[in-house]
Specification:
This protein has about 200 residues and is of the alpha/beta class. The protein is built from 6 helices and 9 strands; from the N terminus they run βαβαβββαβαβαβαβ. The strands form 2 sheets. The chain has a 5-stranded parallel beta sheet with strand order 8-7-6-5-9. Strands 1-2-4-3 form a 4-stranded mixed beta sheet, covered by helices on one side. Belongs to the sulfur carrier protein TusA family.
Length: about 200
Amino acid sequence: MKTIDCRGLECPKPVINTKKTLDQEKGQVIEVLVDNEVARENVSKFLSGQGVGFTVNEKDGYFSIVTEVVSEGLSNKVEEKIVDDKSLVNIGSDVILFSSDKLGKGDDKLGEALMKSFMFALSESKLPSAMLFVNGGVKLTTEGSDVIDTIKELESKGVEVLSCGTCLDFYELKDKLLVGGITNMYTIIEHLQKSGKVISL
């Protein structure tokens, strides 16, 4: 079994180190050590997305993530979503990156109103494949947001909603996330690179 110690590493290094090791250690069981919940979740989501089975154990303040035998290299495939809702044919390949909880620069109240209007209009138009929230943008997916219901509606229609774990920690909002999942910079970059078009707000 190959063990990689990612304790103390900042996002997205645990995911990147895990990917490199899996690429190099075919036919091996891999153990990844991380020391926080965000890293545990990020590595777990990465492994799931690659179709690699694993177990997670908590040990004296850190987490041990042990994979099954990796017989092949990573597939680098986008996980297919199996859905019955015919409305999901309205989803495109674009990705929207939210770096603020307000739309535009100037008056904050106006920016909040514009963001609310934008989200509503988005829910009635061609949908993006994913919505990524970084920096102040994570305030849109957490407690106190005026657009939570609209984002939940978009998620229910098949839009992937992901918030930066480092950003949630910085604003102390990780426990107040109300919609979507927690992600890391490596996954954000993957989404941006695979998208048809990136819209940055």
